[in-house]
Specification:
Strand content of chain B: under 5%
Order of helices and strands of chain A: EEEHEEEHHHEHEHEEHHEEEEEEEEHEEH
Number of helices of chain B: 13
Order of helices and strands of chain B: HHHHHHHHHHHHH
Number of domains of chain B: 2
CATH superfamily of the largest domain in chain A: P-loop containing nucleotide triphosphate hydrolases
Helix content of chain A: 25-40%
Largest sheet of chain B: none
CATH class of the largest domain in chain B: Mainly Alpha
Number of helices of chain A: 10
Oligomer: heterodimer
Radius of gyration of chain A: 25 Å
CATH architecture of the largest domain in chain B: Orthogonal Bundle
Distance between the termini of chain A: 49 Å
Structural class of chain B: mainly alpha
Number of domains of chain A: 2
CATH class of the largest domain in chain A: Alpha Beta
Distance between the termini of chain B: 20 Å
Helix content of chain B: over 70%
Shape of chain B: globular
Chain lengths: 360, 295
């Protein structure tokens, strides 16, 4: 069961939630829609489900155009961030709901309903809670009930809106591994929305990074993380240090250091943005090559086996660096120490924004 | 992965005011209640039963009284279901959709509460009376609204109009529409969703609204008085009948009929507090839900 989204646009009043978004979800895939709040990811999910009508564009489910189908006819399982369990029904009745509302001809017998619901609840390891009401369950339990309720009607597609957003960190990690395993077992085409990059990278087969109503990049987690297509993606997937500068003759001058540009970049002088992740700096007592630059240590704190170090370069710009605890202890650094930073890896993007600013 | 069960809800912390303040305040409230509610109520019943049960029964079984009871029940029987249907529809529209004129609609729903009932009665006379705007047309078609049962029903509808909607709007707004949306994605139709998901969620609020609008429908005096014309045995409702008897110096009969209304009020209060207790329990669970949902 594939999902094809074609040129979808949607506005709420003056707010453009989605601008000309196209996307294909392959059969059996687990896809993450990742982006900051307000980027349109939930709206896209709701449009696929038929809970929202796009201003333009179309959604195809399994090759069938759906614009005339209601949410009811699309046979799409939808799981809400806040579970939306039926408060007045027990866990059993919640899961059985989709089966009970079927037209009489299609409705399974009471015994079949019972067997199916119990099988689902066993799968999510909640069969001991059948008679409880939603208010008597913990957040993680509720989310699993919501998921089994959606799966009870054997949907063609499973859509999850920030499924673990309302849970605490530990339960969240547990549940997302569990979702991964569940997906490997039942292989239903699934799309889930999240603003948590770690979650998207860990669980999904492919990640769609969205920003202000547009898709920035689509790709497998490793590719998106290792080769971000745009500055936004780089910035959104983890901490970064940004340096602005000017590129000329194959070199970028960033003020305190000059770096070589990749050969593909244009020869004309242009402004560039150089991104370096905190753990892509090496920290030394002395300069190790031509790209090393001096910086003063301002703060540091230990995070397990790593140390987060905050430094200031000569022009006062703050730089985040992450080194191993071993290395940090080896250097025996104190606050105010002068050290040398050498970027080992970096990503260079043309700086469109400052060009525009200059044009104004 | 067995998550621990949520902790049990804690009781409200006890207040720590010194006992003279606590008892003083409670006593004052009870004293006030006794003088302004208990005593008058007792007076109504003692006066009604002064001349014995036989006289009481006679007053109540008088044909004019019977007709007043019938008319009151008829007006309530029509007004309350109409209000339920309208109230559910209006609150559904207001709580679940965004549309132009929503504020205006809310204001209009509140209108009968802010307008004096006498004035609402007058508007019906102005509209449907012999010299009213629609009067000549009604006369041609031989329909009488004012000074007849239809007028009384209309006036009752008007004054009881806001009760159900006002109860349901906040309830539906706080519930949101996610449960309904889930129901749709699970393959349920609109009516199935309404009866299986929406209605169970609002049933206590709805019942509360019904109780309130029923009490108002049966007790309404002002608006009904204007459109009734006070024709005994024909257009008299219970409250109007009490007034007539009272003006005729038939004290025992007046109080006997009044005691019926008072009984209704007591009954309403009991049901109302039972429902309130239920709603509170439901809200408490809902609050428990929300507390644990928010990070």
């Amino acid at each position: 069961m594939s999902i094809v989204v074609e040129n979808i646009s949607k506005s709420f009043g003056a707010f453009h939630a989605l601008r000309d978004v196209s996307l294909t979800v392959e059969t059996g895939e687990l896809l993450a829609l990742l982006g900051p709040s307000g980027c349109g990811k939930t709206t896209l999910l709701r449009i696929i489900a038929g809970l929202e009508v796009p201003d333009q564009g179309a959604v195809q489910l399994n090759g069938h155009e759906t614009s005339r189908q209601s949410a009811r006819e699309r046979r799409v399982g939808f799981v809400f961030q806040h579970y939306a369990l039926f408060r007045h029904m027990t866990v059993f009745e919640n899961v059985a709901y989709g089966l009970r509302v079927k037209p009489r001809a299609e409705r399974p017998s009471e015994k079949e309903i019972h067997d199916r619901v119990m099988a689902l609840l066993q799968m999510v390891q909640l069969d001991f809670l059948v008679d409880r009401y939603p208010s008597q369950l913990s957040g993680g339990q509720r989310q699993r009930v919501a998921l089994s309720r959606a799966l009870a009607v054997e949907p063609q597609v499973l859509l999850l809106d920030e499924p673990f957003g309302a849970l605490d960190a530990r339960v969240r990690r547990e549940l997302r591994r569990w979702l991964r395993r569940l997906h490997e077992k039942i292989h239903v085409t699934s799309v889930f929305v999240t603003h948590d990059q770690e979650e998207a990278l860990e669980v999904a087969d492919r990640v769609v990074v969205m920003n202000s109503g547009r898709i920035e990049q689509i790709g497998p987690p490793d590719e998106v993380y290792e080769h971000p297509a745009t500055p936004f993606v780089f910035d959104f997937l983890g901490n970064v240090n940004l340096f602005r500068g000017r590129a000329e003759n194959g070199k970028a001058n960033l003020g305190h250091l000059t770096v070589d540009l990749p050969e593909a970049s244009s020869a004309d002088p242009h402004n560039v943005m150089v991104y370096v992740r905190p753990f892509h700096f090496s920290l030394d007592q002395d300069p190790i090559d031509s790209t090393s630059f001096p910086a003063t240590l301002q703060h540091f704190h230990r995070v397990g086996p790593l140390v987060d170090v905050e430094l200031a370069n000569e022009s006062g710009q703050l730089i985040q660096v992450q080194v191993s605890l071993e290395r940090f202890e080896e250097l025996q650094l104190q606050k105010g120490a002068l050290v040398f930073l050498t970027p080992r890896e970096m990503q260079i993007f043309p700086d469109k924004q400052s060009k525009r600013q200059r044009a104004l | 992965m067995t998550d621990p069960l949520p902790p049990q809800r804690k009781h409200h912390p006890r207040f720590h005011e010194p006992w003279p303040i606590r008892f003083g305040m409670t006593g004052l409230a009870l004293l006030f209640l006794f003088f302004f509610l208990g005593l008058p109520l007792a007076a109504v019943f003692s006066r009604a039963l002064e001349a014995g049960w036989a006289t009481y029964w006679q007053a109540i079984s008088d044909p004019d009284t019977r007709s007043a009871i019938r008319l009151t029940l008829l007006a309530a029987a029509i007004a309350v279901p109409c209000n339920v249907i309208f109230g559910v529809m209006a609150s559904w529209a207001i709580a679940k959709y965004e549309f132009r004129g929503k504020r205006l609609l809310i204001t209009f729903i509140d209108l009968p509460l802010s307008v004096s009932p006498v004035i609402s009665g007058m508007t019906f006379v102005l509209l449907f009376g012999a010299r009213g705007i629609l009067g000549p047309w009604l006369e041609v078609h031989q329909m009488q609204i004012v000074f007849a049962a239809p007028g009384i029903i209309l006036a009752t509808l008007f004054v009881t109009f806001p009760y159900v909607a006002r109860e349901l709007i906040p309830l539906m707004q706080s519930a949101g529409s996610e449960e309904e949306e889930v129901s749709l994605t699970l393959g349920a139709g609109g009516w199935q969703t309404f009866f299986r998901v929406t209605l169970p969620g609002i049933k206590w609020g709805l019942l509360y609204g019904i109780i309130l609008s029923n009490a108002r429908a049966m007790g309404e005096f002002g608006a009904v008085s204007v459109v009734s014309g006070h024709i005994r045995g024909l257009t008299n409702t219970l409250p109007l009948h009490v007034e007539i008897l009272y003006n005729d110096y038939q004290m025992t009969a007046a109080f006997a009929v009044a005691s019926l209304l008072a009984l209704l009020a007591v009954f309403t209060l009991v049901v109302k507090s039972l429902i309130e207790w239920q709603i509170q329990r439901q809200r408490a669970t809902a609050v428990g839900l929300i507390k644990r949902d928010t990070r």
